[in-house]
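re: that chain from earlier
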Amino acid sequence: MRRALVIDDSRTIRSILGKKLGQLGFKVSEAENGKAGIEVLQATPAISLVLVDWNMPVMNGLEFVKQARADSKWDSVTIVMVTTETETSQMLAALDAGANDYIMKPFTDEIIAERLMLLGIQEQTV
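^ sequence. v structure.
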């Protein structure tokens, strides 16, 4: 089974994304900030996908991406920033730091599935 990690300080967003990823065949872990997300990654080496929010306490999403990308053992992990940040400069900063994609909130189930398909993580659903 494929494994995913959802990192967001909003329990509601973690639930929504977790439910959608579960429907797409992922076993989902959750973390409430980037620091906890790094701890989950370290404890769960089979994670292949991370959806991470930008604005969180303790460690934000951009810091998470930078720290994850600094460790080569996570090179194969696909990281998608899912955030309310809409500035082009912030999107570029996330991608430059190593995020594979950037999805702006609010999002729909279809947007999540489509982006994962474009990233080659999800087969096309009927």
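The chain has one domain: 2-86+97-118.
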